[in-house]
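[09:14] KT: can someone run the structure on this one? pasting the chain below
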Amino acid sequence: MAIHLTKESKILVQGMTGGEGMKHTRRMLAAGTNVVGGVNPRKAGRTVDFHDRPVPVFGSVAEGMDATGADVTVVFVPPAFTKAAVTEAADAGIGLAVVITEGVPVHDSVAFLDRARKRGTRVIGPNCPGLISPGQSGAGIIPADITKPGRIGLVTKSGTLTYQLMYELRDIGFSTCVGIGGDPVVGTTHIDCLTAFQDDPETDLIVLIGEIGEIGEIGGDAEERAAAYIRDHVTKPVVGHIAGFTAPEGRTMGHAGAIVSGSSGTARAKQQALEAAGVRVGRTPTETARHVLAVLDSGA
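[09:31] RB: done, structure tokens below
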């Protein structure tokens, strides 16, 4: 099994005919992802050939869903059009929208996330690498050739650290890797993924990656909330990594504009919260991978 994305998923790509959309659609197809159509109102009715794999272009998400049975959309549109694209997808009743776009205005994200929630559409992102269930399907920009199927679930804010941990643990493999995005407001949280991995019978261990000064949730306490959730609801072993142990206090830094002030938001404070919930925390990706191997070897 996997969470949110399986080999049965049928994927539309909003913005498929643009530069980034074309490049990553080609990569998704090469990885075995079932891309069933693109969406571009100005190019509806055309077909794009990807290495002899013809992919039709539809005028709307609703049209694409009616024609193909698509249940996932990946959004590769410019920031100014992202709100309209996700709103359209939610109004069409798509089950999952993976929003890759970076630089989306926060007030736009708040609006389309609220609309998606009311329509029952799960959003991953914005400003995320997407997700991949190795050997089954990938939606977004996560490379498919750096790991293999396995029984580790990974949820992370950082695209780069996603790839590094996948590579570090490539011999073990992953059920699903989810990059939830680094913006101040995102549609799917650490806790959402922890819940799904806890319920997935083919995920044996969960890796959680956070960042200093996390502002994915109001108050900057995303990891602390995750720690409390792990303590009360997660029975599977969890290994964590917090990026930013060497970051200076009182400085704005990182793609999320994280701010460390006093002890709040520091890597150390987040580490303490997670460790109090029984999570082993690595100070580097390599140390985190070692913790994973140690837990698996111990059978804990």
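[09:33] KT: thanks! The two ends are 22 Å apart (CA to CA).
[09:34] RB: yep, looked fine to me
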